Amino acid sequence: MLSKKRVFVAGHKGMVGSAIVRKFRESGREDIVTRSRDELDLSDQAAVRRFFATESIDIVYLAAAKVGGIYANNQYPAEFIYQNLAIECNVIHEAHRSGVQQLLFLGSSCIYPRLAQQPIVEASLLQGYLEPTNEPYAIAKIAGIKLCESYSRQYGRDYRSVMPTNLYGPNDNFHPENSHVVPALIRRFHEAKACGASEVDVWGSGRPMREFLHVDDMADACIHVAGLARSIYESETQPLMSHINVGSGVDCTIRELAESIARVVGFTGRLVFDDSKPDGTPRKLLDVSLLRRLGWESQISLEDGLQSTYEWFVENIYLQEVASI
């Protein structure tokens, strides 16, 4: 059924969107609809309305979002809540207005309470206080879940949501300040190795525990969830929740992650943990038993994923930066 449908991947130049497009094309599909930000500003309701009115879309993968690490979330809370709310409201509402029956919304595990019981089950949503460092972003993502739930309930749409754990991989943001922990550490360790530095600073105490998922696994999970029969999806996600966790089911400390990245990069100096910087949530591990019951689990190990991501960074980011100097 999916092979006969016209698919719009919103956010196709981002890490997750590009992985979804790549996964589709690996399977032989070439008719995926994409638009760059210059071609379609998803925060512009009129532009989004015109797009859906003319493109005859059957299913939407809503991977477009403003994302960033602890620093970016702390510095730009207004941008994080406004831009994500605008994108979600425009795409979901205009998809509905144009008759799009299927949509998959990509959220984030930060939707869950800061001190949720571990591993975190889907029913933990709205059961406690959010992590303050990314609360505006989390609230926007919760709104996206509820938009999908509401349009499905009121209008009979088949709008689903998946909540990924911490993602990494090709096309990640490797900005030295605004990136998430994996790309930030890959860049930091690589540059330290290149200049012969004896030590590298790592934000926080190193004690918090995090789960990581390679973006190619995430793309595969998205296509799997979107392809499930509606009766199967709804029988597993109703009535307690309307979303599905996506993760590896395995976590590690930030110290262990940093040591793994240092090993992959080949940095042999000292790691200095700066506990004056915020740690964020103490632990965040998703319960992925629901997704496993639905027939999917991750395939890419953290070590293998870090190795391939580092190689991608060197070839596509670092060497190009050096060449431009």
Automatic annotation (TrEMBL):
<feature type="binding site">
    <location>
        <begin position="164"/>
        <end position="167"/>
    </location>
    <ligand>
        <name>NADP(+)</name>
    </ligand>
</feature>
<feature type="binding site">
    <location>
        <position position="210"/>
    </location>
    <ligand>
        <name>substrate</name>
    </ligand>
</feature>
<dbReference type="InterPro" id="IPR028614">
    <property type="entry name" value="GDP_fucose/colitose_synth"/>
</dbReference>
<feature type="binding site">
    <location>
        <position position="141"/>
    </location>
    <ligand>
        <name>NADP(+)</name>
    </ligand>
</feature>
<dbReference type="GO" id="GO:0050577">
    <property type="term" value="F:GDP-L-fucose synthase activity"/>
</dbReference>
<feature type="binding site">
    <location>
        <position position="279"/>
    </location>
    <ligand>
        <name>substrate</name>
    </ligand>
</feature>
<dbReference type="GO" id="GO:0016853">
    <property type="term" value="F:isomerase activity"/>
</dbReference>
<dbReference type="GO" id="GO:0070401">
    <property type="term" value="F:NADP+ binding"/>
</dbReference>
<feature type="binding site">
    <location>
        <begin position="106"/>
        <end position="109"/>
    </location>
    <ligand>
        <name>NADP(+)</name>
    </ligand>
</feature>
<feature type="active site" description="Proton donor/acceptor">
    <location>
        <position position="137"/>
    </location>
</feature>
<keyword id="KW-0560">Oxidoreductase</keyword>
<comment type="function">
    <text>Catalyzes the two-step NADP-dependent conversion of GDP-4-dehydro-6-deoxy-D-mannose to GDP-fucose, involving an epimerase and a reductase reaction.</text>
</comment>
<keyword id="KW-0521">NADP</keyword>
<dbReference type="GO" id="GO:0042351">
    <property type="term" value="P:'de novo' GDP-L-fucose biosynthetic process"/>
</dbReference>
<feature type="binding site">
    <location>
        <begin position="11"/>
        <end position="17"/>
    </location>
    <ligand>
        <name>NADP(+)</name>
    </ligand>
</feature>
<feature type="site" description="Important for catalytic activity">
    <location>
        <position position="110"/>
    </location>
</feature>
<feature type="site" description="Important for catalytic activity">
    <location>
        <position position="108"/>
    </location>
</feature>
<comment type="pathway">
    <text>Nucleotide-sugar biosynthesis; GDP-L-fucose biosynthesis via de novo pathway; GDP-L-fucose from GDP-alpha-D-mannose: step 2/2.</text>
</comment>
<comment type="similarity">
    <text>Belongs to the NAD(P)-dependent epimerase/dehydratase family. Fucose synthase subfamily.</text>
</comment>
<feature type="domain" description="NAD-dependent epimerase/dehydratase">
    <location>
        <begin position="7"/>
        <end position="231"/>
    </location>
</feature>
<keyword id="KW-0413">Isomerase</keyword>
<dbReference type="InterPro" id="IPR036291">
    <property type="entry name" value="NAD(P)-bd_dom_sf"/>
</dbReference>
<feature type="binding site">
    <location>
        <position position="188"/>
    </location>
    <ligand>
        <name>substrate</name>
    </ligand>
</feature>
<keyword id="KW-0511">Multifunctional enzyme</keyword>
<dbReference type="Pfam" id="PF01370">
    <property type="entry name" value="Epimerase"/>
</dbReference>
<feature type="binding site">
    <location>
        <position position="203"/>
    </location>
    <ligand>
        <name>substrate</name>
    </ligand>
</feature>
<feature type="binding site">
    <location>
        <position position="180"/>
    </location>
    <ligand>
        <name>NADP(+)</name>
    </ligand>
</feature>
<dbReference type="InterPro" id="IPR001509">
    <property type="entry name" value="Epimerase_deHydtase"/>
</dbReference>
<protein>
    <recommendedName>
        <fullName>GDP-L-fucose synthase</fullName>
        <ecNumber>1.1.1.271</ecNumber>
    </recommendedName>
</protein>
